[in-house]
Amino acid sequence: MTEITIADSRFAPIPGVKQTAKDFLYLVLGLPLGIVSFTFAVTMLSLSAGLAITFVGIPLLVLTLVAARWFARIERARAVLVIDDPVAADAPLEGDAIERAKALFKDRAAWTGTLWSLLLLPIGTFGFTVAVTLWSTALGFLTSPLWYWAMPNDDETIPLLDSTSVGYSILRVLIGLALLPTTMVACRALAAGSGRAARAILG
To answer: Which residue has the higher pLDDT, 159 or 166?
Structure first.
């Protein structure tokens, strides 16, 4: 029987600082990588389909599949940041340039890489939004005494958010402290889920 220890991030109630940093990096990078991969994949697939009746369409599709394999390798390496099990590497293409180009059309890694290029944008956008929102809220409350004094003295609408009094400042710090573990656990779960999705598709 495998012994489960608190060091195993899958079973620890609150991840450590190192894993938390990896989770945040993974989630934040999901948005820019998703934008780039989605834009490239959609553009190249559209061009390849539109030019399929010409000689240009096939080389464009080959280029798209090559780029998808390359991007899939990046995503496999990135997934290791947030999941314990490694993601299987793709099989190398063999033969000369013509044979490798033909093999691409039957290569699972090329097509799953293309699929992940399309899926990463919504997944990455959601992960980025959740991570940035949660951490901004938690750290904003926690550090509010350092900068709330500089806020304009407008009419208060919500005392917890607008008041610069000592009492509400302390309350905001306490809320920030309470939100930190919640944020860490939420980002851990979200990053691990995204990493496992990448492994399921790319592995």
So the answer is: 166
In a domain, 94, yes or no: yes
Domain count, the chain: 1
Both tokens assigned to 50: 């539109």
Please identify which residue in the block is written with the tokens 């890694």. Answer: 109
Note if the pTM is more than 0.90. no
Cα–Cα distance measured from residue 150 to residue 164, given in angstroms and rounded to the nearest whole number: 9
Question: Is 8 among the domain residues?
Answer: no
Q: Considering the domain boundaries, does residue 6 fall inside one?
A: no
Dmax (CA) for the chain in angstroms is 73
Question: What is the extent of the structural domain holding 140?
Answer: 20-202
Report if residue 14 sits inside a domain: no
Residue-wise pLDDT tens digits, 108-147:
888 999 999 999 999 999 999 999 999 999 998 888 777 6
Q: What SS3 class is residue 4?
A: coil
What does the alpha-carbon distance between residue 60 and residue 52 come to, in Å, rounded to a whole number? 9
